Amino acid sequence: MPPTAGKPTRRDFLSTGARLGAGLAAATTGAAALSLPGSRASAARATLTYIGIANLPGVKEAMIAQFEKSHPGVKVTYLTAPSTEDQYHDKMVTLLAAKDSSIDVLETDVIWPPEMAGAGWLAPLDAYLPLSLRKKYSPSMIDAQTWKGHLVGIPYYMDSGHLFYRKDLLAAHGFEAPKTWLELVHQAQTITKANKGLYGYVTDWSKNEQLSDNFFEFIWSNGGDVLDKNGKVVIDSPQNVEAVQMMRDMIAKYRVMAPGVLSIGLEPGRTLFTEGHAVFHRNWGYAYALAQNAGQGSKVVGKVDATTLPGFHAGSGAGCTGGWSYAVNAFSKNRTLAAEFAQFMGSPRMETYEALNGQDPAAYLPADTDPKVAAKYPVYPKYVPAYASARSRPKTPFYNQISTIIQLTVGAALAGTTPPKDALAQAAQQIQRLVSAPH
Amino acid sequence: MASSVPEKNEAHAPAAPAQLLAVSPSQRSTLLYRWGRAARASGGYLYILPALIVMLTVIGYPIGRTVWTSLLSMQLQLSLYGTPFVGLANYRYVLTDAVFWNSLGVTAYFAIATIIIEMSLGLVIALVINHNFRGRGLLRAAMLIPWAIPAVVSAEMWAWMYAPANGAINGLLSLVAGRQTLLDPLGSAAWAMPAVILVDVWRNTPFTALLLLAGLQLISAEYYEAARVDGASGWQCFRHITLPLLRSSFAVALLFRILAALQTFDIPRVLTGGGPGESTELIGLDTYRAYFTYLDFGQGATLAVIVMVLTVIAAAIYSRRLTASMKG
């Protein structure tokens, strides 16, 4: 079980002190730090409010019941987040910007910490996930949840872009899972020619965060990036131009993309694949369970497998890291108890429980290869190598602006209105303008 | 109130409000008289003072606050570093932003197209259902359905209908064409905007039709009878009676549509999110994104102020034209 649960440590004070020293969120943080020693007693009849994204019914509730059992007198209210990530983000931001304390524990998306921790809205949780244990969690998730040296979320749901494919169709044509984009194109063309009404590759390149994720996966798999290590804008590099040209060619030249790739969105695209209309599909980990579930309308049960996304060279493919973590509202009136709750929910035991009973792979990697979990979800152990090559999107408080610029410019290139080279030159100019704008 | 009970003399009359008991009737009338004189002397401003206070609170304060915010660097993700006053820096940033100018052009395209189509179509529908025929009441009610459905719901519905591989529109086209069609209007830079405009027209035409119908019903049948007696044709009646008398209803409907077009957000947000690229990036989407996605309240307020100024200019030009033409 988690060691020294709830006891304030020097580390906790140090991190709080550092925040104060930096002139951050002075009043509330200070008050919370002072009330720490007494909070154990006041926890006797405490309540916590926790908001999170939906899992299968009953899973979170069972975990909460266990926490309440081990913390007599504590009552946890569980709220379900709005169904789209954008809406949930905007709701949380509005609440936190108002220093609202009505939510104690919230689940954060992998791209939120720079923005939210940067604003001082998330409490540091360094003491609640010791370094020795932290090593067993997905490194890219831990990296994404670390802001200015502090852990601001306990990762529980590991995700990454994966390539799903119809193993029956590939086998029928004697193909192995593709390692490069050109291999994918070739296989898709061959198989769709032989099967009327089947599409090659379905994914979501409509104007939303998914387009940015796909873009990152293409440029990373060609050795490119948006910002280099020194924060210099390198989005208009020749590798990136080549990557976007490849995306455009897959639509217009090779004609392997399913119709609607620029408009229909993630779930309608996923539906096309699980209803058996496409050979290849890029999606997050959740798609596999749905493909295996005939009750959810899948017509490809037992015919789907997952692999690491292709690259421009064999082995250069890289998925985009996604996933969710438990974070504590810095304005919570019960920060210590809230942190204990986050620690409990993100503990190895609970993550293994959730991986087994829920629908999402765990960020605590041993849970994904746990024999019981692997027996139920044979694909989870296969995800783990993809996690090793998975990468995080740029860590900046201005990520949403950069992502929007990508959606505007790359989207225009994919629609064929701007040549890729010009589109990326525009993107570079706009991102440059953004990062050099005075605060 | 004294007049309703004739037997009672004047001394009984001021019975009601206790605080007035000390004041004799003559004094009271003097006070009222004085207040009235003061109010009149102020040019009537004292009379409208309560309304003015309400207006200032619910309209003046938010506008003033927005204008002030547009002069600050207010980025929530940097809120620990304060919200310094930056003068016109936000305006400089927005006005030199290619995305802003593009969205202004896109908004103009959207506004002009939707207004022309919705006004002419609305007029035709209003003229048709202004006639007496069987089932007119039912038709009027049915006509309002698109307008009664929440915009987000109808946009979502249309998004499914537009979908290329399994959407209803391609399904129907395939039946007609005899082969599978895979048109993807929302994924095409050229066709995304017409597709968004079509949904807006479908949703908002009933509203203009209703406003124009109300105007049509105000026109007395006697004018038409008189014209018929004088041998006027149907077209002449329409041209010289209906159109001139419909002018003010038309003006109101047009003004509403101009304002709504400049603020349109929900339908493109659901259908395209402004894409592909920036082809349906209306200024309403731009403003929302600055506020709630970028958390850049300074930039959001700047865009809001610019839209407000454009709206006020459009409304002012328009209402001046209108009053001028009504006088003439």
Features of the shown structure:
heterodimer; A: 439 residues; alpha/beta; four-stranded mixed β-sheet; 21 helices; 11 strands; 46% helix; B: mainly alpha; 14 helices; disordered N terminus
Model description:
The complex is a heterodimer of chains A (439) and B (328). Chain A is built from 21 helices and eleven strands. Chain A has helices at 10-21, 26-34, 39-42, 59-70, 85-97, 113-118, 131-134, 139-144, 167-172, 181-194, 209-220, 238-252, 266-274, 286-291, 335-345, 348-357, 365-368, 371-376, 380-389, 399-414, 420-436, and strands at residues 47-52, 75-80, 105-109, 146-147, 150-151, 154-160, 162-166, 199-202, 278-283, 304-307, 321-328. In chain A, the strands form three sheets. Chain A has a five-stranded mixed sheet with strand order 2-1-3-11-6. In chain A, strands 8-9-7-10 form a four-stranded mixed sheet, with helices on both faces. Chain A has a two-stranded antiparallel sheet with strand order 4-5. In chain A, α1 packs antiparallel against α2, α11 (209-220) packs across α20 and α20 (399-414) runs antiparallel to α21 (420-436). Chain A starts with 9 loop residues before the first helix and ends with a helix. Residues 1-43 of chain A have low confidence and may be disordered. Chain B has helices spanning 25-41, 49-69, 89-95, 98-129, 136-143, 145-148, 151-162, 168-177, 192-218, 221-229, 234-263, 266-271, 283-293, 297-327. Residues 1-16 of chain B have low confidence and may be disordered. At the A-B interface, α5, α6, α20 and α21 of A face α7 and α13 of B.
